[in-house]
Fold this sequence. Notes:
Order of helices and strands: EEHEEHEEHEEHEHEEEEH
Number of helices: 6
CATH superfamily: Putative cyclase
Largest sheet: 9 strands, mixed
Helix content: 10-25%
Shape: globular
Distance between the termini: 38 Å
Amino acid sequence: MTPVVDWGALRGRLVDLSLPVDERAPAYPGDPAPRLAPWATLARDGYRVTHLHLGSHQGTHLDAPSHFLEGGDDADAIPLATCVGPALCVHLGGKAPGDDIGVADIEPVACALTPGARLVLRTGWDRSWPAPEYFTDGPRLTEDLAAWLAARRLALLGLDLPTPHPWADVDGRIHRRLLSAGTVLLEGLAHLERVPQGSFWLSALPLRLGGADASPVRAIGLVPEPAAETRAESAAAGGATP
């Protein structure tokens, strides 16, 4: 059954959580570089059409199960409800390049990680984009954490990293573990410092690309703000008003 959402009840500020896609944007090593070329022009044709050439994992993107699983769902088959809804953002402060992200980092929020939950991890590594080390030197998920999260059967795991384990997950063990558990991977998020630790509303919808193993997304967060009455009470008490 498709969930019913009371859109009128949603309040907050929108935050763009996506990396830009243009010809200056780097691609994951070995993937095709993005190219946006004129196909039709105003001067010649009276209208504009742009020819897009890019890999399915360009920028901020969603990994479908078929990225590593034989017979897994493609991007167009991922349920929309997986990609939109409440999420939990966890800030992992103090993670240096190459540091492990392990079970101990996430255990404090274990009670919130019920089946179907969406978890977003902020390391701050997106600040290294677009330098080459963005793809190679970031913090990394351990296999123990991947197994621990897979057991909780999350709907979605979001990261401000280009991949869960740069260069070490060459045989896809971490990807396979999570994707096999029904957890899609939202990679390459940005600007998570604008999302306070805790709950927010996430939207990261893939394009309806038939047969694709992934899709770039425009990821956005809806960050709750205090109701008007709460702000007024805070101001009356001498508190700061957002």
